[in-house]
Input
Amino acid sequence: MSAPAENEPSGARGPSLLESLRLRGVRKTFGSLTALDDVDLDIPRRGTTVLLGPSGSGKSTLLRCINLLERPDAGSIDFGDGPIRLGGRLGARTVRSVRSRSTMVFQQFNLFPHLTALGNVTLAPIHTEGVPKAKAEARGRELLEKVGLGAKADAYPDRLSGGQQQRVAIARALAMEPDVLLFDEPTSALDPELAAEVVAVLADLAREDRTLVVVTHSLAFAQRVADKVVFVEDGKVLLDGPPKDFFESEDARLRRFREMVS
Ligand code: ADP
Ligand code: MG
Output
């Protein structure tokens, strides 16, 4: 007899208990360029999805559409409580609600230079979420500890290495307690040894039953942490499946990509 799955809500909240978000028909054009061509994608709950694909294939645009940093022309997103139409005019409440589900970590960290590490981590919880300062700071220190920067809470970004700045950015994203964490090439601005610190933090997060979506060029990273690999080319999803489907595919385009990036 199989044991009941952990934390399963009794009533189905959405498309599937196995997915944390579902995109359907997401389309984004920039003038005459179709950056996303009716993309369908299911992001597994409590798993790591790695997005791969050539430069310019639409990976960043896809992440940005999930977070509404970019407004799709058409399509829908479902976080488990019904599809939200993304094309056309969106009300401010809809935008806030979609944005609150995911948090993005950028390639270039984007820390506020005039705030300490702790200030960066607590800014949104205090000013946007209304968390009391003492509580936000206690939680912020825990999160900095978690990314290995407990001793750097009072340091300003210009006194931190790139790897440390990116780890502050990850702590800042965690402080928002999003359903889904989105990472857009989080290590590509870093030297290899600094990238390794960030990869170690990402691998820890991946072990914690969180929902992560990571754009990367690192096949080693994909091999190590991905539960699912999605390969994007010319704004279309070419492959969506377990990592071995990607790594063992005989498709010429996938083989070429594997050879090119490794
Ligand atoms: P990737 O992240 O896979 O490298 P992007 O999502 O950044 O690709 O870009 C997909 C395509 O959309 C590219 O051709 C890119 O030049 C174009 N693009 C992205 N953002 C914009 C923008 N704001 N304006 C015009 N074109 C854009
Ligand atoms: Mg990109």
